[in-house]
């Protein structure tokens, strides 16, 4: 297909496709003439992934390129690609003080040890979690901190569902899409399901 048809098929404007080509997010098509190229279903799939990384997962062009480069590297394992994708999505907070970080790591260590979680190689994901815990403490929500173990239990259950979804994906592109855009979407899904569940969990005589 020509670029115009690729645009119609994916809904991505031609100027945007050209921009992705220049930035190395989309591989070049098969050149037929000096100013023309043909594209196939692999370009449709890659465009879908690029839009998911940028629009749904909120990645920058640089971060998205890192994920795509990992996918295209034949020596990269699925675990490594997923790790790259998670690091690209997670937002870390560099303003956390050393003493606050030590406090948060102490709180997390108990939960992690009980589950066999490994925290020290989680990078930006761990940094973001630490910043969140510090924020919860600083606004005085000690009731939430006391239930950290319970929240971790729920996280384990959600992770089992997530991993089962990854197992159903047949390509690295699908796995990355699930780990990035899929996670972003299910974060919103879970937040809304949680709010509905909260209302239904209240006793009938709750004031």
- Proportion of residues in helical segments: over 70%
Query: For the terminal residues, how far apart are their CA atoms?
Result: 63 Å
CATH class bucket of the domain at 3-82: Mainly Alpha
Major sheet:
2 strands, antiparallel
Q: Under CATH, the topology of the domain at 3-82 is which?
A: Multidrug-efflux Transporter Regulator, Chain: A, Domain 2
Low-confidence stretches: none
Global outline: elongated
Computed structural class:
mainly alpha
Our estimate of the beta-strand percent is under 5%
Q: What is the CATH architecture assignment of the domain at 3-82?
A: Orthogonal Bundle
Strand order of the largest sheet: 1-2
Helix-strand pattern: HHEEHHHHHHHH
Provide the gyration radius in Å. Answer: 21 Å
Number of helices: 10
Q: Overall pLDDT, averaged?
A: 86
Can you count the beta strands?
A: 2
Task: Identify the notable features of this structure and list them briefly.
207 residues, Multidrug-efflux Transporter Regulator, Chain: A, Domain 2, two-stranded antiparallel ribbon, 10 helices, MerR family transcriptional regulator, DNA-bd_dom_put_sf, DNA-binding, MerR_fam
What does this molecule look like?
This protein is mainly alpha-helical. It contains ten helices and two strands, in the order ααββαααααααα. A two-stranded antiparallel ribbon has the order 1-2. It is elongated, with a radius of gyration of 21 Å. The mean pLDDT is 86.
